[in-house]
What does this fold into?
Amino acid sequence: MRQVPTSSEDGCLELGGQISSNDTTEEFLGRTPGWFRDLWDYRELLFFLAWRDFRLRYRQTFLGIAWALIQPLFTMAVFTVLFGTVVKVPSDGMPHPVFYYAGLLPWIYFSSVVGLSAVSLISNASLITKVYFPRVFLPVSPPLTGLVDLGISSIMLIGLLLWYGVPFTWKLALWPGLVFLLFTLALSVGILLAASNVRYRDIKHALPLVIQLWLYATPIIYPLSLVPERFRTLVLLNPLTGIVEAFRASCSPTVSVNWLALVASVAVIGLLLVVSLFYFTKVEREFADIA
Amino acid sequence: MLREALVNLWSRDGTRGSSGGELWALNDVTFRIDKGEVLGLIGRNGAGKSTLLKILSRITYPTRGNVAVRGSVASLLEVGTGFHDELTGRENIYFSGSILGMLKSRVDAKLDAIIDFAGVSRFIDTPIKRYSSGMRLRLGFAVAAHLDSDVLLVDEVLAVGDGEFQKKCLQAMDNLHDSERTVIFVSHNLAAVEHLCSRAIWIDEGRLRTDGKPKEVIAAYMSTFGEARRHAVDLRDNTSRRGSGHIRYTKIEFLTPDGLSEPLICSGDSVVARLYFEAKERVENPIFGLEIHTQLGTLVAQLHTYNSGVDIPAIELGNGRMDLQIYDLNLTPGQYTISLFLANLGYMFHDVLQHCATLDVEPSSRYGFGRGVHGNPIISLGCSWHLSQNDKWLHPVMI
It folds into this structure.
C-alpha cells in the first residue's frame, strides 16, 4: 500500500498508460485543442441527434409532416388577405401569395429552428450531466432537422410559381447557397442563445419578444424597396434582410438580386458564427455544473 | 442575477452557508492507471468520487490540474444514457450507443447480441415508454456491455435494479478482467470492489487517502468508521418529529454487543441500538419502539418494549439511554431506514421520528458476499448445506 504524499497542489491524473505530448490540456482561446477533431470523431452522433429530433417532431400528430406545409400556407393566406388585399402593401410586382410565401419560407425556418436551438442545452441537461460529447451538436441539431421542413415547403413554392405562371429564371440556382447561408445564420444565433440560456434563463422569456421584433425588422410583410432611404443601412445590418430579399428575387423574373444586401448578410453571418463559437467554447465547460 | 442577489442576501442572514468559505470537491488527487487495470474507487458519500468520475469523463472540468487520457473513454454514470421514452428499443440502442461513443457500424454488428442480452426481442420496435423499469435497465446495460472503449468509467450502476440485474452486471464486470480494458469503478459495495478490482483508491473529503491492493485499502477505509461514528445520529435538531415532547430521543447509535462502537454492520451480525433520551418531566408507562424499513418503504421489523413484554413503570425527569439488542440482523445487504417512537400505553405519542437514521448493512462472507441473489429478498437466513450420495457423506458444503 502506498500513502500518497500531500505536497503537490494540483491534481494530475493519467489513465490508460503513457502520456504523449499532445495529450496535455493546454488552453487555446479557452478551448481545449482537439475541439474540432472531436466534432469529426463524433460526427455520427450529430446525425443521430438530428435524426432523433426529426423522429420526435411530428410523433403522435395526425397530420405529421404535412405541418411543414400548413404553417407557411396558412400564414401566407393571412398575410395575403390582410396586407395584400386590405392594407395593400406593394409587392415589387409579384403575385402577393408568391411574395409572402417566398419571404415566409426562410423566416419560418429561422424562427422555429432558433427557438428550438435556444432551449436545446437546457432540455438535454440530463445528457450533459451524464456523458461527454461535443455540446455544440445540441444547438446545431435543430437547424439540421429543420432543413427537411424547408425542403418540403420549397417544393410547394415551385407549385405556387407554376400556378401563378411565374417563369423560372437562373436565379433559382441561388437556392442552395441561400439555404446554406440561412442554415449558418440559424446555427450561429442558435449556438449563441443556447449557450447564454444555460446561465441566463432570461433568454427563454425574452426570445418570443425578440423573434416578434425581428419579424417586423425584416422585409417579410413589406418589400425592402418600401423602406425609406435613410433606414436602409440599418435594415441591411439585419442578416436576414439580404437572404429574404434574395429568396424573393429568385422567384421573380423582374426583381433583380440585391447583391449589396447579400454581401452584408454574408459579412454579418460570418461575424456571428465566429462570435458564437468563441463564446460557446468559452463557457461550455461549466454547462454540466449549471445546466 | 437579481434573483441570485436576493438569494445570497437571504442565505447570509439565514443559517446556511457563508461561514466556511469555498469547498473543494477534490484537491491534491494524483494517480496514474495503466492499461488493463481495474480500479475501484471507494469513499463516503460526498467524498468526491462522482466528481472525480465526471472530471475523468470530461463532463465537468477541474478548476486546476489536468487529466491525460489515452484512448477512447465511455462513461456509465447511469444505465440507459440518452434513452428517450418516445423512441423504440431499437432506436434507443442506436442513439444511446452513439452518444456513448460507439460507431454505427459497431452497433449494426452487435445489434442482435445487444437485443439478446437485454431479452427484449419481442418489444424491440415498441417505444420504451411502454417498457417496465426492469426492461429499460436491461436494455441500458446491454448497450453498455457492448461498448468497445479503451477506458470505461462506471458509477454505482450496480446499485440499481433488482437482484437478477445486479447479478448480470457483476458477471459482465467480471468479464472486464479478461479484456485489455482500463476500468474505473465507483461503488459502495465493498465486496464487489474487492472481488472485481485489481487496485483500489480511497477518496476522503476530496483527497486521495490510500491507493493499493483492494483488500488493504478497504481495510483502511473500514477502520475509520469507528472514529467517525457513522452509525450515530444526533436527533436533537430533528425538525420533522411529532409528539407531545414530554420525553424525546436525543441520539441513536449502533454498537457491537460488547458496547463498542460498530464500524461496519454486516448481514447476520448482532448489534445493539443505543437510544439516548431526555425526559422533560416524569413519564409513566412509556413504550420504546424502533422500526426498520427498506429503502422502498416496506416495514421489515417493528420492535417495541410492549410487544417484547417489557413493562417500564416510569421514566423520571432527566437523561437516559435504552439499549436494544438485536441478535441476528439477518437482513440482506443494503440500506435500511430506522424510525423511532416513544409512546404511552394508550398509544399517545411522546416522540415520533420517521426515517431518522439509516442503517447500512454490508455483505458478509456468511451469506456469500451477496453473490447470486435473485429477486429482491429482504432477509437472509443462516444455513449450511450437506450433500450425500449413495449413502455416503460427501464433504459438507458449508459457507
